[in-house]
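Moderator note: this is an archived Q&A kept for reference. The question asked for a predicted structure of one protein chain; the sequence and the answer are reproduced below.
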Amino acid sequence: MSTTKLHGHYFMPAEWETHEATWLAWPHEESDWPGKFAPIRWVYGEIARHLAEVERVRLLVPDKASQAEARRVFKLAGVNLAAVDFYVCPTDRSWTRDFAPIFVRDAAQRLTVTNWKFNGWAKYPDWHCDNAVPTFTARKLKLPLVDLEHVVLEGGSIDVNGAGLMLTTEECLLSPMQARNPGLAREDLEAIFARHLGIRKVLWLNRGIAGDDTHGHVDDLARFTHARTVVIVVEPDRGDENHEPLKENLARLRRMTDLRGRPLRIATLPMPRPVMFGGQRLPASYANFYIANGIVLVPVFNDPADREALNTIAELFPRRRVIPIYCRDFVLGLGTLHCCTQQQPAARA
């Protein structure tokens, strides 16, 4: 954990700041949900139904046939279609958190698209369509584009408080396994984040949760809920493979401070009991919630810990409506609500 001198002209707003829209991508890669693809479109319908009540929904669809299908599902699910914009744009998958634009503001407060490289989590070969989405988005929205394709960065690997702090993990950004940027050291990344995201201090946690295909994304692990508050998942069961790494991350977080040297306020979320399918552990986590205008969408898994997680998140967001979304089928795709959403902050005059 170190403080970087801010020398850039861009900053990334916190997720809880006002949105103009949320970006989604229509699910079409059936291999992401083997044997369970049929209900996934209806999960998107439920997500869009709630989002369209509070902000615009901007949906990427691979072709006109998919657009017609999405429109039909949304209509049957009760989505306010007047609040949905459809964009025909090929994608490889539907995890917009990781390949859709990270929106920032420049020194003049203009909304700007940052175009980081996406390479399929340094694991999958089919990523070129996803990687083209930020350029497509900037063109459609007529927004400035900052080309950062020399650096791989996924939105799910970082979380910011909008005031100079960032959460991430060493496992994702520094490990030689699924290495995103093997030529860049910790200090190099911190300097890049300072320049292009307005980050002055990076809070480095160690490892992510078991079953995480991304190798350590922080949005399954720990999230800012306020400029000085972080909620982090814990696993009290000593026999669970998550117990030790999550215990270490909590200990690290307790030693961390904000830019003024003050300790962070820390809340904890439980983990659901292991969610398994075909012998594979899936990355089920309540930390993968999504903050939208006036609401928080929270993944639930038909688990006794659902209630505790919802109550904790409601306490952390007392002015927002907390909405559970059933994700036990959805998580077979190795992600849930935060993974499939990307916020577009509201423009400022």
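Archived answer notes: The first helix runs from residue 40 to 51.
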